[in-house]
Amino acid sequence: MSPHLSQDAPQPDGTPQAAGRRKRPFGLYMILLLLMIQALLGLVLATILALGMAVNPDEFWTTVGPELYDVPFVLMAITAVVLVGVWRYRMWGWYGMMLLLAYYTATDAIGYFVGEPDYVSMLLNVAMVFYLNQREVRDLFAAPAAREVRA
Length: 151
Fold this sequence. Notes:
Number of domains: 1
Mean pLDDT: 75
Number of helices: 6
Strand order of the largest sheet: 1-2
Structural class: mainly alpha
Order of helices and strands: EEHHHHHH
Shape: elongated
Radius of gyration: 19 Å
Distance between the termini: 26 Å
Helix content: over 70%
Strand content: under 5%
Low-confidence stretches: 1-9, 15-19
């Protein structure tokens, strides 16, 4: 057995799983690392907002409003489901991740054009799209579909 084989990932060429599995590619680890960075930055922002709410709750709710909590919590739940799909090499996970990144990139572009750019988020999203579209990462998600066609 090759030193590059492990029990983590399916073979991209569709060979049976008993023959061995390929190690997760670097791009997949980078996607997960970038998402973790993005989540930590979101946590810092949420902490700052919570502190603002604790200092002056009336002004906070009239300025920010309850919609602050609706969309981020829904997006966190969707992202958690998508991450499970990405980690388990499901094609819907790859598509879901691309759709989430399209949403995040669109909101970043809107923020840029209204004069409130978030350059860190833009950079993280572009890097994740880059890694998701690398051939070695895409092949991991295409392998189950190739096996289904052969069956």
